[in-house]
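---------- Forwarded message ----------

FYI, see the Sugar ABC transporter permease record below. Original note from H. follows.
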Amino acid sequence: MTTAVGRVGDDRLAASPARRLGRLQREGRAAYLFLAPALLFFCVFLILPFVFAIVLAFSDWGGFDLGTLKWAGTANFGDVLSFDGTFVKLILVNTLLFAFGSVFLATFGSVLVAYCIDRLAFQGFWRVLYFLPVVATVVAIGNVWKMMYQPAGLINGVLNKLGVNSIGFLSDASYALPSVTVVQAWASIGGAVLILTAGLKAIPEMYYEAAEVDGANSWHMFWSITLPLLRPALLFVLITQFIGGLQSFALIIVMTGDGGPVNATNVAAFEMYQRAFKYGAWGTASAMAMVLFVIILAITLLQLWVARRRGEETS
């Protein structure tokens, strides 16, 4: 009797790993089934277009019939990266100035706004107020600021009251790109504020209490406690802002129309749009997209490397 009971127990122990493995396999199949719509969307709208863009970068295509697709080798990259071309000398410079300028202004402004909101009453109201530009359309934002930048607009009206002559914010090549950069930074502050306020909420109050006991003022606490502990959220904001700034072109279309004056606001994404949809040079536009992709990847990896090095030095 004892032997029979022991044998049944051994059979159950031997069968339990098999049952657990079967249950895990069934759960895995169910998980993939639920993920299938998202994976299908990812493949159709991200992976396939990316592969097709790589093919187009090495091809000559007018954009209408795949039968006219011709292999061009690296000729498109040669045209894009040629020293005499405007892409490297002007458009990439404008793109980097636009991206770095908007990221600097947006990051500095979002840190300041988030720090102030964290110390105000009715924080939900202020977060919603600053988030409104994010949910507004680019067309609405661009047109409102375009009217404000006009010679008879609000900004020049204030300057005239102060005794300053009207400035051609969008008609003068010296002011056009900085003017659009300010609008891009203003429009992207709201999303960064939400992320940074969440990061500020995650900082324990005991650090500030201990620093206050040691006699630290607000500036010392901000520089020695807030910024170091806010680094993960700040890194995410920097990366997403850089990617958005390097890819942005809708605001430029709305505010300047053609990247003017004299290509002063012409950036890489806008030039790609024109080459593909206006001139039908899909191969050249795809080569530009690949160059921009490499630049975005390099800047992102550099940011991650710098953040990791700074984290190791402070740890």
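H. also flagged this: Residues 72 and 141 are 41 Å apart (CA to CA).
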